[in-house]
């Protein structure tokens, strides 16, 4: 069992089957797919060093629309449903099955509540970096803000 710092998820302890994925394998996957390979190697390495590994069972929620600003989630294995709610319409639902897809950058950058909720569609492994860690890294290296902004492209 592993304690995690994700109080809004309702998940306080996680059990990791030994054969699912290791933290090092998850970091390697994230380093090779999606946004991080387009950044500076030192940024990517440092960013990943501050990530923890989370496992969600089908139906588990990583975050909800309207949650306070928090850290970022990177899909490593599995599948997430994203619930995107707009005030004038019903929620939209989309699925993201691609490793290397990251979520949470908007609230990390703006400090605004979450506009996207994430729900596991099947057993899913995520990397998570808490918002305070992101802000510490960027305070130490202000030029890294540009790399964080790349996740939006």
Write a concise synopsis of the structure shown:
With 153 residues, this protein is α+β, with helices and mostly antiparallel strands. The protein contains 5 helices and 10 strands, in the order ββααββββββαββαα.
Q: What does this entry look like structurally?
A:
- Helix content is 27%, strand content 27%.
- The chain is of the alpha+beta class and 153 residues long.
- Strand 6 and strand 7 form a beta hairpin.
- It is globular.
- The N terminus is likely disordered.
Largest β-sheet summary: 4 strands, antiparallel
Contiguous runs where pLDDT drops below 50 for at least 5 residues: 1-5, 7-16
Q: Helical amount among residues, as a percent range?
A: 25-40%
C-alpha Rg (nearest Å): 15 Å
Question: Widest sheet: strand order?
Answer: 3-10-5-8
The first-to-last residue Cα distance is 36 Å
Choose one word for the global shape.
Answer: globular
Q: Beta-strand percentage?
A: 25-35%
The class by helix and strand makeup works out as alpha+beta
H-E string: EEHHEEEEEEHEEHH
Average pLDDT over all residues: 85
Number of E-type strands: 10
Number of discrete helical segments: 5
């Amino acid at each position: 069992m592993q304690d995690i710092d994700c109080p809004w998820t309702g998940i306080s302890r996680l059990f990791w089957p030994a054969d699912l994925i290791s933290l090092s394998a998850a970091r390697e996957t994230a380093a090779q797919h999606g946004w991080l390979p387009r950044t500076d190697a030192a940024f990517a390495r440092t960013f990943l060093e501050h990530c923890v590994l989370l496992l969600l069972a089908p139906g588990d929620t990583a975050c909800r629309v309207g949650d306070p600003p928090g850290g970022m989630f990177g899909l490593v294995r599995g599948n997430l449903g994203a619930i995107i709610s707009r005030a004038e319409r019903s929620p939209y639902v989309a699925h993201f099955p691609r490793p290397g897809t990251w979520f949470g950058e908007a609230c990390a950058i703006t400090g605004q509540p979450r506009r996207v909720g994430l729900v596991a569609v099947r057993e899913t492994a995520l990397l998570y970096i808490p918002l305070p860690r992101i802000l510490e890294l960027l305070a130490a290296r202000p030029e890294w803000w540009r790399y964080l902004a790349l996740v939006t492209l």
